[in-house]
Known about the structure:
Elements: E1 2-4, E2 9-12, E3 15-17, E4 23-25, H1 26-49, H2 59-79, H3 85-103
Antiparallel strand pairs: 1-2, 3-4
Helix pairs in contact: 1-2, 2-3
Amino acid sequence: LFRDPAKKKELAPMQYRFLNFGTKSIPGSLAFFLSSLGSSILLGKFYYSRGHWMKSLDFETFARVSLIACAFATFAEAVSPPGKDNLLVPLAVMVVCHYFESSGTAGLMTSCW
């Protein structure tokens, strides 16, 4: 729990637990989501600005797929047992990328592999 050091009282119960897999915090999960989304968008913008971008994939579609992939990665991190998130997070992103690539929504998303 987060505490106010001056008053020594609990500010809010901002933690959660999925089954018996350990305690996670809402600010930590939010930070994970925002940092993964921000870094994927920044990297996509970098590639887009340098011309290393496939003409069949517009940036708006990439941003939507990134949002969904980051949401799945955050969910995988939230429900993963301790020490298993390093396996489950990339796996969740690969599943999302494979789905969008195979459905034709976002071609060439197999670069996630």
